[in-house]
């Protein structure tokens, strides 16, 4: 525990808060996640301190993504693909952590205002749908994101020490979207937000992974041609070697 | 042992992917199919996005078919003339199929179309081959050349014989209009783009039953034309959809090369009817599995795919 707290003070001293609030500080360690060949997930720690009374909520928001949602419908005895919609601007990841169940900390209106309710997330649906239909698709999307582990809510997941320090573990999955991840810490009391601070960490491809992604998108035809030639060469060489050896 | 795939944007187990490759490579070497009808569902089951599975499967098949063609060429079992004519058609069909795949993807119907095509083609072709090979096995009459269509001349064969551009294919011992393999190649090219398959499981029965080619030559020639079909589709999938993952494709090729070598050696020892029976059973097994996915109620009726950029 002592080692952890020493580390916390060292990190706070070195980095300083991302955006200072008198009563709340927050540092993200590491502030950058590199995706290379051996990447299978990562952990980011949100380290901070809080002075004064109150509870803490930490929100992690992934970069927005565009997805297509489709649903199966029953056609006679068969389950076949039915209609689909495009859903834009949805955060690719949403983690909510708190010192107590969030529903007990803030009333629904305040949670909505702070973007702590799924229904308050700014999603674009294409084509435009009736409110009822849109609500059905939104719920389905949230359910899928929860099931896949991208949307998580953990009340009582944060413990604050007597001196006001806290460490929040943010476990990131292996199929992480690249971009900027925003972390927001809220100090709440009596159903109100009393303080707030934010931080940001970046997720990016590095090394060969970055080179491949860039090449595949910057010069796709050349990339495809060279890749296919390389595949053919690899297949021939791997087949020819044992044949020649025999 | 995990590795991150930059285009699929996920991590996979290298050993598992190599085993997938070895399995489809074995089938390729044994019966002349590319194995795409197996590799695509396997990759999707692992979590690879469907469009990446289809596109990377095409690149893998290009590599596998290249190696297998080399081995068959050394055995003198490729009708290059027939293969090149088929290639001409499949290139045309493959180009059309890539754009059809993109349109279906945007309409959210890509997965539906793929499953429907799989069930119909695998089911019908597999059933026909199973019946024929069982009959042939019962007759115990395997001369290395298929007799599945029987001695009676079908109306289709009569029509084919009346087409222009009649050409001889000496190695296969057949003569027909060049339009026939071109049309067949075009149909297979469309399937390759849509389904991530080389079309071998359609091409092999067609060569055996419709074109009356010897099974030994069919396997090598099918793989030779698959080489060009899948290579063309791989390039087009990368160019249009940016969806070929090289790391995934190379791992699959490494596994499939080993499987192909084993398949070719076993295939050389088995009688032709037995080979067709094996192919028919594999195709029917996959078709049954897919039918079950259509019949059984899904755990979640909703599905999500990330939009391509």
Task: Classify the oligomer.
Answer: heterodimer
Spans of chain A of at least 5 consecutive residues whose pLDDT stays below 50 are 1-5, 8-20
Strand and helix order of chain B: EEHHHHHHEEHHHHHE
Strand segment count of chain B: 5
Please tell me the total number of domains of chain A. Answer: 2
Describe this protein's structure.
The complex is a heterodimer of chains A (246) and B (309). In chain A, a hairpin with a 2-residue loop joins β5 (64-75) and β6. With 246 residues, chain A is α+β, with helices and mostly antiparallel strands. Chain A has 2 domains: 2-204, Immunoglobulin-like, CATH 2.60.40; 213-245. In chain A, 32% of the residues lie in helices and 39% in strands. With 309 residues, chain B is mostly helical. Chain B has one domain (10-295). Chain B is 72% helix and 7% strand. Chain B has 11 helices and 5 strands, in the order ββααααααββαααααβ. In chain B, β1 (2-5) and β2 form a beta hairpin. In chain B, α3 crosses α10 (246-269). The longest helix of chain B has 30 residues, at 110-139.
């Amino acid at each position: 525990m002592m080692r952890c707290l020493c580390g916390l003070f060292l990190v706070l001293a070195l980095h300083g808060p991302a955006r200072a609030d008198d009563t709340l500080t927050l540092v993200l360690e590491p502030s950058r996640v590199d995706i290379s060949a051996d990447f299978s997930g990562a952990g980011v720690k949100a380290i901070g301190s809080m002075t004064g009374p109150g509870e803490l909520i930490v929100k992690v928001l992934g970069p927005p993504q565009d997805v297509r949602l489709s649903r199966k419908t029953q056609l006679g005895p068969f389950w076949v693909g039915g209609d689909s919609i495009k859903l834009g601007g949805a955060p690719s990841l949403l983690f909510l952590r708190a010192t107590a169940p969030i529903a007990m900390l803030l009333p629904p209106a305040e949670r909505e205002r702070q973007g702590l309710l799924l229904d308050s997330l700014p999603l674009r649906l294409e084509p435009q749908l009736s409110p009822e239909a849109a609500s059905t698709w939104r719920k389905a999307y949230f359910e899928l994101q929860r099931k896949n582990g991208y949307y998580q809510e953990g009340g009582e997941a944060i413990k604050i020490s007597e001196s006001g320090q806290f460490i929040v573990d943010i476990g990131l999955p292996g199929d992480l979207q690249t971009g900027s991840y925003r972390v927001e810490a809220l100090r709440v009391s009596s159903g109100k937000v009393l303080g707030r601070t934010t931080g940001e960490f970046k997720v990016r491809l590095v090394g060969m992974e970055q080179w491949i992604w860039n090449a595949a998108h910057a010069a796709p035809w050349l990339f495809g041609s060279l890749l296919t030639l390389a595949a053919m060469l690899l297949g021939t060489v791997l087949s020819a070697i044992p044949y020649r050896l025999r | 042992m995990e590795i991150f795939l930059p285009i699929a944007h996920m991590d996979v187990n290298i050993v598992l992917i190599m085993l997938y490759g070895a399995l489809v490579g074995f089938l390729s070497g044994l019966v002349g199919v590319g194995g795409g009808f197996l590799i695509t569902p396997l990759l999707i089951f692992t979590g690879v996005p469907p469009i990446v599975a289809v596109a990377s499967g095409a690149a893998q098949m290009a590599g596998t078919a290249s190696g297998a063609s080399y081995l068959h060429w050394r055995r003198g079992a490729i009708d290059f003339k027939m293969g090149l004519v088929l290639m001409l058609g499949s290139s045309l069909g493959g180009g059309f199929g890539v754009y059809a795949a993109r349109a279906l993807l945007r309409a959210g119907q890509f997965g539906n179309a793929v499953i429907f095509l799989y069930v119909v083609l695998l089911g019908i072709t597999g059933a026909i081959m199973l019946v024929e090979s069982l009959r042939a096995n019962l007759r115990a009459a395997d001369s290395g050349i298929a007799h599945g269509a029987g001695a009676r001349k079908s109306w289709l064969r009569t029509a084919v014989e009346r087409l222009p551009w009649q050409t001889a294919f000496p190695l296969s011992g057949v003569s027909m209009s060049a339009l026939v393999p071109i049309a067949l190649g075009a149909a297979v090219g469309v399937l390759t783009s849509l389904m991530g398959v080389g079309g071998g499981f359609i091409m092999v029965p067609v060569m055996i039953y419709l074109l009356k080619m010897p099974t030994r030559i069919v396997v090598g020639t099918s793989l030779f034309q698959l080489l060009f079909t899948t290579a063309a589709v791989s390039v087009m999938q990368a160019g249009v959809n940016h969806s070929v993952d090289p790391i995934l494709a190379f791992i699959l090729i490494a596994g499939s090369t080993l499987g192909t070598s084993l398949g070719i050696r076993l295939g050389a020892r088995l009688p032709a009817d037995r080979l067709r029976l094996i192919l028919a059973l594999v195709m029917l097994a996959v078709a049954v599995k897919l039918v079950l996915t259509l019949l059984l109620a899904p755990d979640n009726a909703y599905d999500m795919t990330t939009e391509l950029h």
